[in-house]
Design goal:
- This protein is an alpha/beta fold.
- About 50% of the residues lie in helices and about 15% in strands.
- The protein is globular.
């Protein structure tokens, strides 16, 4: 399996690329073949009517993390809408990431509401185990944003989706 292909812009970067290729024991020809194979593969996928399925995992209360999931979701929505290709996206919050989907602690209520209006098929899931732990610590039941579904275990949900062929992105 060939690793990710990295594009370099400056002369210094090209020198770094040569060292990287030598260090990995790859030839320039081999890298070129891999690039062509990757491009051909991407063209086949992009020309098909494959349903794209992506899961974002949010496991931090850091607003930047959920921000990555929101912007990634928006970008993928634009990409697939423009290509007229079907897609499904689910954002799964676990650990301290559940704070981003709570009605009383989320700092991204409006961006999430906007995202849900623009992408009605978007699924927001929260880890039930993390919610139970937080609820016990805080001494009250947690309330989540409208439409958020509670799954038994966030990591279990991510695994289920990956096993069903979904692409995984850690936000």
């Amino acid at each position: 399996m060939v690793g990710p292909i990295v594009l370099f812009n400056s002369a210094t970067d090209r020198t770094s690329r040569r060292h990287l290729i030598k260090g990995l024991g790859l030839s320039i020809a081999g890298a070129a073949v891999a690039t062509v194979s990757h491009a051909e593969s991407a063209a086949k996928v992009n020309s098909s009517k494959t349903r794209h399925r992506i899961v974002f995992q949010v496991d931090s209360a850091d607003e930047k993390v959920i921000g990555h999931a929101i912007s990634g979701t928006m970008n993928l929505s634009r990409l697939y809408d423009d290509a007229k290709q079907p897609f499904e996206i689910e954002i799964v919050a676990n650990a301290s990431g559940i704070q981003m989907l709570r009605a009383d602690t989320s700092t991204v209520v409006e961006p999430l509401a906007t995202l849900r209006r623009l992408i009605p098929t978007l699924t927001l899931s929260v880890c039930g185990s993390s919610a139970a732990i937080a609820s016990q610590k805080e001494g009250h039941e947690l309330v989540f944003l409208f439409g958020v579904k509670v799954v038994p275990y966030g990591v279990g949900r991510v695994v289920e989706l990956q096993e069903a062929g979904w692409s995984y992105i850690h936000a």
